[in-house]
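Researcher: Sequence recovery benchmark, item below. Answer with residues only.
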């Protein structure tokens, strides 16, 4: 990462900007669990000290909790990249332009991918690096974590099912939790099972190869920037296709929810499958697919 990343220097941080919420991150982790190789499973379980079937899901939200602590405040900017684009007219992520001096999610994925492979580091540092990777690969797939406008939608006031909230929170939690009708680990595991089937033999089967094409842990900046740009594109097409004013103070639990849900489902699938491939690359040198 940039030299400034270790300094106690922060970007403005909105506490509600927790990409996908617990349900989303845990679902993505379970999807990845269903696709990692046996060798990768053993590698991750050893680092994490967890031999349960939930070894990835159990730490998937750690980074959100950690950044709320005094020790972890430095990591707040690592959860997003502020695309200085102009939605809905144009969307796009440019790493050199959009990754701030304090760091960003693209840079964080690169940094912690390097650190988790660094055998000179202490076991607790490698443990931390793996937990960050599991979380940040999820973060980068949330469209509003790849957008600067209105603090990634946090400043766009909306309603959902009659309750006042903001656009970012709708994508983080309201849409996923409404679909799953809950937010427990069991709900995440069930959703992941459905998505896993869709990836293997269902509606995503003919797409999955493209999701990991040109993936490279040796050029993680390019790979993670491509993921961010892909997610950011939905800001223009699905998040605010008619601009922020079209959703301000509007209840989004009807037609908006119906149109947004397939994007959330697709992004979960991409994130889980890519996380599995990324961990496979780290552990074995191959995506495994």
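Model:
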């Amino acid at each position: 990462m940039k030299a400034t990343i270790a300094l106690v220097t922060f970007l403005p941080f909105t506490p509600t900007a927790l990409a996908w919420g617990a349900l989303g991150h845990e679902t993505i982790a379970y999807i990845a669990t269903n696709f990692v190789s046996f060798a990768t499973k053993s590698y991750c379980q050893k680092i994490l000290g967890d031999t349960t079937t939930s070894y990835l899901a159990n730490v998937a939200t750690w980074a959100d909790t950690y950044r709320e602590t005094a020790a972890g405040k430095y990591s707040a900017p690592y959860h997003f990249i502020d695309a200085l684009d102009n939605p809905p007219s144009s969307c796009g992520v440019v790493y050199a332009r959009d990754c701030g001096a304090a760091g960003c999610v693209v840079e964080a994925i690169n940094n912690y991918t390097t650190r988790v492979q660094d055998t000179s580091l202490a076991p607790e540092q490698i443990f931390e690096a793996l937990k960050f990777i599991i979380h940040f690969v999820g973060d980068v797939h949330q469209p509003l974590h790849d957008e600067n406008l209105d603090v990634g939608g946090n400043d766009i006031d909306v309603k959902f099912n009659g309750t006042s909230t903001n656009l970012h929170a709708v994508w983080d939690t309201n849409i996923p939790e409404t679909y799953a009708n809950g937010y427990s680990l069991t709900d995440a595991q069930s959703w992941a099972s459905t998505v896993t089937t869709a990836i293997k033999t269902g509606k995503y089967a003919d797409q999955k190869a493209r999701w990991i094409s040109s993936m490279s842990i040796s050029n993680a900046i390019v790979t993670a920037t491509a993921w961010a740009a892909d997610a950011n594109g939905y800001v223009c097409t699905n998040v605010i296709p008619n601009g922020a004013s079209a959703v301000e103070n509007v209840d989004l639990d009807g037609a908006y929810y119906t149109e947004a849900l397939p994007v959330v489902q697709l992004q979960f699938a991409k994130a889980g499958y890519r996380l599995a491939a990324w961990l496979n690359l780290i552990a074995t040198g191959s995506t495994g697919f």
